[in-house]
Structures are given as structure tokens and as C-alpha cells.
Amino acid sequence: MVLLLVAALAASVATVSPSAGARHDRFAVAITSRHATGVFGSTRRSYVAEAHAVHPASRCVNNRDRVFADRRAGVRIRAVLDPARGEGGPEGWCRGRFRGTVTYTEGFACPAAGRCRPPRGFPTRTVLVARFSFRVH
Question: How far apart are the C-alpha atoms of 63 and 72, rounded to whole Å?
């Protein structure tokens, strides 16, 4: 059962638009969700896109991550990687190639306010579901 779930999750394909851009461009990563995302009882399910510069540099953005919006299973979802959202934003992306991953995570759903105290032994799982890349001129 677990092997079938992992195989189904790993079958996702990520697309990036644009595939190449300028230092201040935003890159949209899209996948078709295999699972509904959001809070279900005490469990939160989510997809996250992360991108990292192949050759990191200084005084520019070397990495970004973004959580995909909560949606039902089987729909196309997007996460936009924006160099302005986070440290180093005014300088824009570093020039060169970026490699990225999309991961699916199930874990404890922390409350909206207050301290998060996951129960001891609460099952968590993270699975790599897709890879992508883009280039910055």
C-alpha cells in the first residue's frame, strides 16, 4: 500500500513558466495535485516548491521556496517563486541555472494562533514528487 502511494506521488510532472527569465522575474511552478491539500482533522497536507542556484553567488537571491495553495485532488496548482519575497529581494535572482524540487508533506496541523505542540509520535511524511529547473539571464 505504501509503495503504491509513493509511486503515485512520484509520478507528478512539474512545469515552470517562464523556463528562462531576468533577475526580477517570477517563476511559476505548476503540478497536478495527487492529493487534496489543507487541514484534514489533525493533519496538514501540502506541496512545496523549492529552487536553489546551481552555482550560488553573493548579493543576489540564491534560493526561494513557496507553498502551493490548498486545493482538491486532481487539479492543476501553482506556486510562484518571487525573488522580491525574502532576503536579498531587491537585488533579484543570481544569474545562472536553478534546480528545484516539489515535495508533498503530511504532518501535524498546528493551530492558527499560539504554540504548536505536535503529539509525540505523530506521523509525518515528506515525499519528493517532481523536479524542475529554470535559467536566469
Answer: 28
